């Protein structure tokens, strides 16, 4: 993500692409971070997640008569969510919902002291594997 900066000199417009930092994004969208300073988000606890599609494009399905109807991409998102608990024994899943352009879920990271989060599972996945497919 970036932004195009312009500079006018002697009736000549010059363009320069600048990467956008997290601070710039907060200023552009007038948002403040709700993350706790110094908090370790990898520690055990309950976490509410929201994941949005790029540019808030409706990629995951549509709402018909008040009901969310998932398309193939929406089904992949839902399956990837359930895959997390199947893949990682220290993850427990609570409620989730896939919406046309975003996803909400509540995830619990259980205490996993004494185990490695990167330990091999014995099941080898090919490169490029998409969870839930």
How would you portray this structure in words?
With 133 residues, this protein is of the alpha+beta class. It folds into two domains: 1-34, no CATH class; 36-112, no CATH class. Helices cover 18% and strands 36% of the residues. The chain has two helices and seven strands, in the order ββαβββαββ. The chain has helices spanning 22-29, 72-87; strands spanning 2-9, 12-19, 45-52, 61-64, 67-70, 91-98, 102-109. It is flat, with a radius of gyration of 20 Å. 5% of the residues are buried.
Structural class: alpha+beta
Average pLDDT for all residues: 75
Distance between the termini: 28 Å
Gyration radius, rounded = 20 Å
Major sheet: arrangement of strands: 3-7-6
Write a short abstract of this structure.
The chain is α+β, with helices and mostly antiparallel strands. It has helices spanning 22-29, 72-87, and strands at 2-9, 12-19, 45-52, 61-64, 67-70, 91-98, 102-109. A three-stranded antiparallel β-sheet has the order 3-7-6, with helices on one face. A two-stranded antiparallel ribbon has the order 1-2. A two-stranded antiparallel sheet has the order 4-5.
């Amino acid at each position: 993500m970036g932004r195009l900066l312009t500079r006018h000199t002697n009736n000549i417009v010059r363009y320069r692409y600048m990467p956008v930092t997290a601070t710039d994004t907060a200023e552009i969208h007038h948002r403040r971070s709700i993350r706790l300073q110094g908090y370790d988000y990898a520690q055990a606890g309950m976490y509410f997640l929201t994941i949005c599609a790029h540019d808030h494009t409706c990629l995951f399905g549509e709402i018909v008569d008040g009901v969310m109807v998932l398309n193939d991409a929406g089904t992949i998102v839902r399956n990837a969510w359930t895959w997390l608990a199947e893949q990682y024994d220290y993850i427990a899943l609570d409620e989730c919902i896939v919406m046309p352009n975003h996803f909400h879920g509540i995830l619990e990271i259980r205490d996993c002291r004494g185990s490695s989060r990167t330990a091999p599972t014995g099941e080898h996945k090919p490169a490029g594997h998409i969870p839930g497919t």
